[in-house]
Design goal:
Strands 3-2-13-12-14-15-16-17-18 form a 9-stranded mixed beta sheet, with helices on both faces. Among the domains are: 35-46 and 57-232, Rossmann fold; 468-581, 2-Layer Sandwich (GMP Synthetase, Chain A, domain 3). It is an alpha/beta fold. It contains 18 helices and 28 strands.
C-alpha cells in the first residue's frame, strides 16, 4: 500500500517536472529550391490543370500559363535593371498580376515587398523608403476605392517619383480607369522583356539560392521605424508545404482565399500551399466582400476556404437556404483566435467539419502550430494544434526559464522557419531573436501560451493585451469566448482601460447578432456566472452606437486593432466624466 502511494507520488512529480519544450517531426525532409523552380516543376507535372482563378478579372491560369507569364515578367524586370537582391514593391488587391509578379521576382532573386493596402499615403511612402524599393507596382483601384490620390503623392510636379531611390512607378493593371494613364504598365515591361534572351534569364535563375530573401512583409504600422520581416524561399516554401499537409490538400482541392496577398495568410497559407500541393486557388474579389466569397465558393465548387473571425462573421450573416456548401470540407481559421461558438457555427452553416486552426506570426513564415483536419472537434476548438515538422517551441517565464507542462508563459519558436531578421534593423532583430546557452536561435513571440501533455498548444493571449487589474492578470480571450457564447452577441473584443483605483479595468466592445441586444447588466451577469466577478466588464460599448463606430477597427489582415479600442474607450470615459462633472 505504501509502495503504491509512493509510486503515485513519483508519477505525480514526474508529470509536474516535465518541461514545456517541443520538437516537431523530422519528416518529410525539407525542400531546398526557389520559387521559380517550384513553379517550373509543378507546371511540368500538372501543365493544363487550373492553378489560379481571379473572378473579378475573369482570369484563369493553368500551371503552365502562370509559369509562362512569370517568365515574361521576369524578363521585363531584368530589362528595367532589376537585379538579384533588389526590392520591388507591390501595392494592390488580390489579382492575377500580383501572383505573376511574386513568382517573377522569385525567379531572378529580387525581393517582393508586399505593402498593406490600408496604409495612408504617408505610411506607404515611409514603407517604400524604408525597404528601398527600386520600382513600385500599384493599382488605380481596389474594390470600389480609387487610389489616384495615393498615386499623386508618389509623384512630383514633373510626373517623376517623389521618393528617393524609387526609380519607377508602374501600374500593375491596365484595365482600370485612372487619370495617370501616362504611367508605364506591367504590359509595357513585358514588351520590353522580349529583348532579354532565354540564356540571360536562365543564368540569372541559376544564381538564386533557396536561402535568399524573396519577400519583405511589414509586421506592424509604419510610424517611426517600421519593421519588415525578411523571409526566404526556403522559409515560405516549406511552411506552405507543411500547412497543406495538415489540411490534406490535394490536386482535387479548390481553395477560396479572401485573405489579402500582402499578408502571410493569403500569400503562404493560401497561394503557396496550393502551388506546393497542385491545388487551385480562387480569389473571389480584389478586396474582401462577403457576397463575392459565397458566390465564389458555390460557382467554383470550392472544397476549402480561409478566413479570419471578421470575415466569417460577415459571411455567415448572408447565408440563406439557397446556399449549398456540401463540397466544402476544410480551410484555415487564423488571424486572431476564433471563438468556440463561431467555430461550431462554421461547421453547421458552411459544412466546415474539418476546419483547421493555425498559429503563427510573420517572422516565422508564418505557421508553427496547426491542428490537423482529422483532429477532434474539441482539439480544433480549444487549441492551435501541435507543432509542425522541423520546428521547435518552448514556453518560458519572465526570467527565461522553461516552465513545466501546463504552466503559462511566453511562447518561443526555433527552426528553419525563422526570418533572417528585420530589414536594415539589427537592433529590433536582437530584441526578439535570442540565442540560448546551447547556441539555438529562438524567436520570442510576445504571445502567452500553454502546452498540454499531448503536445497541443493553447494561446491564452497577447502578453501586451493582458489586463492587470489591481495586480491580478486577466486574459481578454477567456472573457471574449464567454461573451460570444451569448446568443445575442456576435463578436466581442475585450480591452483594459485606465483606472485610478485598480490601474486597469475590463471593458468590452460588443457587436450584436441582431437588432435585439442584452443590456449592460445582463452582459456583466453573463460573465460573472461563468468567471470571477472581477472579470465582468465594468464598461460595455456597442459597435454601431454613436461615437463607437459602425464596425471594429481592423488591420489589413482582419485583426481587431485593440490599441485603437483602448484609446477610444479611454476617450469615451473621459468625455463621460467631464459631462457628469459639468
Amino acid at each position: 500500500m505504501a509502495i503504491e502511494r509512493l509510486h503515485q507520488t513519483l508519477r505525480h512529480l514526474d508529470q509536474k517536472t516535465r518541461l514545456s519544450i517541443l520538437h516537431g517531426p523530422k519528416e518529410p525532409e525539407l525542400l531546398s529550391l526557389h520559387l521559380g523552380t517550384l513553379l517550373d516543376l509543378q507546371a511540368q507535372r500538372l501543365a493544363s490543370r487550373t492553378s489560379l482563378v481571379s473572378r473579378a478579372q475573369n482570369v484563369r491560369h493553368s500551371f503552365s500559363s502562370l509559369r509562362a507569364r512569370s517568365q515574361e515578367i521576369a524578363r521585363g524586370l531584368l530589362s528595367l535593371g532589376i537585379r538579384h537582391g533588389d526590392c520591388v514593391g507591390v501595392f494592390a488587391g488580390n489579382c492575377a498580376e500580383y501572383v505573376e509578379l511574386f513568382f517573377a521576382c522569385g525567379r531572378i532573386g529580387a525581393i517582393l515587398v508586399v505593402l498593406n493596402v490600408t496604409y495612408t499615403p504617408e505610411e506607404l511612402k515611409r514603407a517604400i523608403a524604408a525597404s528601398e524599393c527600386k520600382v513600385l507596382f500599384i493599382t488605380a483601384r481596389i474594390g470600389t476605392r480609387s487610389y489616384d490620390s495615393t498615386i499623386e503623392t508618389l509623384l512630383d510636379s514633373n510626373g517623376a517619383t517623389s521618393i528617393p531611390g524609387l526609380q519607377k512607378l508602374l501600374l500593375l493593371r491596365d484595365d482600370q480607369t485612372t487619370k495617370y494613364k501616362f504611367l508605364p504598365t506591367l504590359r509595357d515591361i513585358i514588351s520590353r522583356g522580349h529583348e532579354v534572351s532565354d540564356t540571360a534569364l536562365q543564368t540569372t535563375e541559376l544564381a538564386v539560392s533557396p536561402h535568399d530573401v524573396c519577400n519583405l512583409q511589414f509586421t506592424s504600422g509604419t510610424t517611426g521605424n517600421p519593421k519588415a520581416a525578411m523571409l526566404t524561399h526556403f522559409n515560405i516554401i516549406n511552411n506552405a508545404r507543411f500547412i497543406g499537409d495538415r489540411m490534406a490538400l490535394s490536386e482535387k482541392d479548390i481553395l477560396c482565399c479572401p485573405p489579402p496577398l500582402f499578408h502571410c495568410f493569403g500569400l503562404v497559407l493560401g497561394l503557396l500551399a496550393t502551388i506546393t500541393h497542385g491545388s487551385t486557388i480562387v480569389f473571389p474579389s480584389d478586396s474582401f466582400d462577403a457576397e463575392s466569397v459565397l458566390s465564389a465558393v458555390l460557382e467554383e465548387q470550392c472544397t476549402a476556404i480561409h478566413g479570419v473571425p471578421a470575415m466569417w462573421a460577415a459571411e455567415m450573416q448572408l447565408i440563406g437556404p439557397q446556399h449549398d456548401f456540401s463540397r466544402l470540407r476544410t480551410g484555415i481559421a487564423a488571424g486572431s483566435a476564433t471563438p468556440r461558438q463561431m467555430m461550431e457555427d462554421l461547421g453547421k452553416k458552411m459544412s466546415l467539419k474539418y476546419l483547421t486552426n493555425t498559429y503563427g506570426m510573420t517572422e516565422t513564415s508564418p505557421a508553427s502550430f496547426m491542428t490537423s483536419w482529422n483532429d477532434t472537434l474539441e482539439r480544433r476548438l480549444a487549441t492551435v494544434g501541435t507543432i509542425l515538422p522541423h520546428t521547435s517551441a518552448k514556453i518560458i517565464d519572465g526570467q527565461g526559464n522553461i516552465v513545466p507542462i501546463g504552466c503559462k508563459g511566453e511562447l518561443c519558436i526555433s527552426g528553419y522557419l525563422l526570418q533572417k531578421g528585420y530589414w536594415k534593423n539589427p537592433e529590433k532583430t536582437k530584441e526578439v531573436m535570442i540565442r540560448d546557452e546551447h547556441g539555438t536561435l529562438w524567436m520570442h513571440t510576445g504571445d502567452e501560451a500553454v502546452f498540454d501533455e499531448d503536445g497541443y498548444c493553447k494561446i491564452t493571449g497577447r502578453i501586451k493585451d493582458i489586463i492587470i487589474r489591481g495586480g491580478e492578470n486577466i486574459f481578454p480571450l477567456e472573457i471574449e469566448e464567454i461573451l460570444m457564447e451569448h446568443p445575442l452577441i456576435m463578436n466581442a473584443s475585450v480591452v483594459g482601460l485606465k483606472d485610478d483605483k485598480y490601474g486597469e479595468i475590463v471593458a468590452s466592445f460588443l457587436q450584436a447578432a441582431s437588432d435585439k441586444r442584452p443590456d449592460d447588466e445582463e452582459v456583466r451577469s453573463w460573465v460573472r456566472r461563468r468567471l470571477g466577478r472581477h472579470k465582468a466588464p465594468k464598461h460595455v460599448f456597442w459597435i454601431g452606437d454613436p461615437k463607437v463606430g459602425d464596425s471594429y477597427p481592423l488591420t489589413g489582415s482582419g485583426k481587431i486593432k485593440k490599441n485603437v479600442l483602448r484609446e477610444l474607450g479611454d476617450t469615451l470615459l473621459k468625455e463621460s466624466l467631464a459631462v457628469r462633472q459639468s
